[in-house]
């Protein structure tokens, strides 16, 4: 098991999630159960899957959940682009969130590779 609060990828994912929540706070109220909800669920899914993987018994299981978190991050990235194109999220804010998601994806990929190589050496 890993120390969750010490994982840089988990902390970065939490930061991205908070940024999404702040951004969606200004969305039209009629979107609260549609687009806003979908974007927030994707944002919460990323750190949640990292957390679940960190709590698993083996590094192989952790790597599997990192893969799920990566998929959720790509889903989130796609949704942010759509929201920007719908003018629901400002270009500047969307670019910041997209940049942070890119950083998170790179960090997650690197960490997953590290875990896999450690697992293969065992």
Account of the 3D structure:
The chain is mainly α and 122 residues long. The chain has one domain: 23S rRNA-intervening sequence (de novo design (two linked rop proteins)), CATH 1.20.1440.60. It has helices at residues 8-24, 35-54, 59-85, 91-121.
Supply database-style keywords.
4 helices; de novo design (two linked rop proteins); mainly alpha; 122 residues; single chain; 78% helix
Radius of gyration: 15 Å
Count of helical stretches: 4
pLDDT < 50 stretches: none
Helical amount among residues, as a percent range? Answer: over 70%
Reading the helices and strands in chain order gives: HHHH
Structural class: mainly alpha
* Secondary-structure arrangement, i.e. CATH architecture: Up-down Bundle
Number of domains: 1
CATH topology: de novo design (two linked rop proteins)
Report how far the terminal alpha carbons are from each other: 16 Å
What would you call the shape?
Answer: elongated
Find the count of extended strands (DSSP E, 2+ residues): 0
Roughly what fraction of the amino acids lie in strands? under 5%
Q: How are the elements arranged and paired?
A:
Blueprint (H helix, E strand, L loop, with lengths): L7 H17 L10 H20 L4 H27 L5 H31 L1
Helix pairs in contact: 1-2, 1-4, 2-3, 3-4
Explain briefly what this protein structure is:
The chain has one domain (4-117): de novo design (two linked rop proteins) (Up-down Bundle).
């Amino acid at each position: 098991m890993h120390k969750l609060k010490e994982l840089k990828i988990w902390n970065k994912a939490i930061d991205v999630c908070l940024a999404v929540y702040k951004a969606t706070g200004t969305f039209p109220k009629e979107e609260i159960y549609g687009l806003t909800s979908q974007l927030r669920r994707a944002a919460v899914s990323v750190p949640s899957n990292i957390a679940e993987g960190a709590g698993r018994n083996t590094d192989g299981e952790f790597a599997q959940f990192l893969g799920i978190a990566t998929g959720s991050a790509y889903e989130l990235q796609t949704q942010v682009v759509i929201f920007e194109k719908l003018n629901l999220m400002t270009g500047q804010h969307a670019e910041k969130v997209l940049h942070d998601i890119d950083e998170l994806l790179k960090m997650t990929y690197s960490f997953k590779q590290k875990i896999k190589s450690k697992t293969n050496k065992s």
